[in-house]
C-alpha cells in the first residue's frame, strides 16, 4: 500500500475526530450559554419583584 494513501487516510480520521470534539465543545458551550441566560433572567425577575413589592408596601404605609 502506498504510504501517501495511508497518510491521507490517517489525516482524514484524525480530522474527523477533531471536528467531532469541536462540535461537542460547541454544543457544551451553547448549553452553558443557555444556563447563563436563564440565571440572568431569574435574577432580573427576582430583583424586579423585590422593587415592586417594596414600592407597593411603601404606598400602603406598611413600613414605619
Number of helices: 1
Structural class label: mainly alpha
Largest sheet: none
**Could you tell me the radius of gyration in angstroms?**
27 Å
Low-pLDDT regions: none
Helix content class: over 70%
Strand content: under 5%
Mean pLDDT: 76
Shape field: rod-shaped
The assembly state of the depicted protein chains is single chain
| Distance N to C terminus | 91 Å
Task: Summarize the topology.
Elements (H helix, E strand, L loop, with lengths): L2 H57 L5
Could you walk me through the main structural features you see in this protein, from its secondary elements to its overall organization?
- 89% of the residues lie in helices and 0% in strands.
- It contains one helix and no strands.
- It is mainly alpha-helical.
- The protein is rod-shaped and about 90 Å long.
- It starts with a helix and ends in a 5-residue tail after the last helix.
- It has one helix spanning 3-59.
In short, what is this structure?
89% of the residues lie in helices and 0% in strands. With 64 residues, the protein is mainly alpha-helical. It is rod-shaped.
Descriptive tags:
mainly alpha; 1 helix; rod-shaped; 64 residues
